[in-house]
Amino acid sequence: MIAKDSEALLAAVHWNDQGLVPAIAQDARSGQVLMLAWMNADALRASLDEGRGVYWSRTRQQLWRKGESSGHVQKLVDLRLDCDGDTVLLRVLQEGPACHTGAATCFFRAAKDAAWAETTPPPGSFLDSLQETIHGRRAADPGQSYVARLLQGGQDRILKKVGEEATEFVIAAKNGEREAILNEAADLLFHTLVALEERNLHIDDVLDRLASREGVSGLAEKAARGKQT
């Protein structure tokens, strides 16, 4: 949970001679570095008050609310200060691409043969990559693709498989054999991703939900869910 006493937080920041501090935005789900910008005290205060990424534009000399015109907003999950107090890290939930070029991250050029070459940005996470692979199997030949066979077999077939894998994981965990636990956990996670795909949901939707619970007591969260039903 982000503290609301912004003035106390601002007082701990070591601002440069221009009253600015570099601000790194990082995807709270994948850990991918999205961009580097600058903040003054007003930008940091606004980020805390509004719960979103707000920066200072050195070119326009004004506050810049990320996504204000593009819709690619950054929901603030966590704010951190480095050991020297002169750099802040915003862990955010990014809507759409972070870069104005349309790339997922601003860091899409890599040093290669004494030049900066455009390259495919690193995947946000292995789970993201796996989910995209599963999505791509929707239209595949079920005779050639296990995922396509599951998806075209319908929801009941997929959920039956998830149930089987969950049972096998419980048995493996009970027996306590490391390799069996890891194998069954991997199988359960994989088939859960297939079930999400069948419902047109993404692993990021699940991670968003987990991120929204950060700093909230598990008991309190369960009690709140009980009141909603």
Automatic annotation (TrEMBL):
It catalyses: 1-(5-phospho-beta-D-ribosyl)-ATP + H2O = 1-(5-phospho-beta-D-ribosyl)-5'-AMP + diphosphate + H(+); 1-(5-phospho-beta-D-ribosyl)-5'-AMP + H2O = 1-(5-phospho-beta-D-ribosyl)-5-[(5-phospho-beta-D-ribosylamino)methylideneamino]imidazole-4-carboxamide. Pathway: Amino-acid biosynthesis; L-histidine biosynthesis; L-histidine from 5-phospho-alpha-D-ribose 1-diphosphate: step 2/9; Amino-acid biosynthesis; L-histidine biosynthesis; L-histidine from 5-phospho-alpha-D-ribose 1-diphosphate: step 3/9. Its EC number is 3.5.4.19, 3.6.1.31. Residues 35-108 form the Phosphoribosyl-AMP cyclohydrolase domain. Residues 1-126 are annotated as: Phosphoribosyl-AMP cyclohydrolase. Pfam families: PRA-CH, PRA-PH. Keywords: Amino-acid biosynthesis, ATP-binding, Cytoplasm, Histidine biosynthesis, Hydrolase, Multifunctional enzyme, Nucleotide-binding. PANTHER family: HISTIDINE BIOSYNTHESIS BIFUNCTIONAL PROTEIN (PTHR42945), HISTIDINE BIOSYNTHESIS BIFUNCTIONAL PROTEIN HIS7 (PTHR42945:SF1). NCBIfam families: histidine_hisI, PRK00051.1, PRK00400.1-3, PRK02759.1. This is Histidine biosynthesis bifunctional protein HisIE. It comes from Acidithiobacillus caldus.
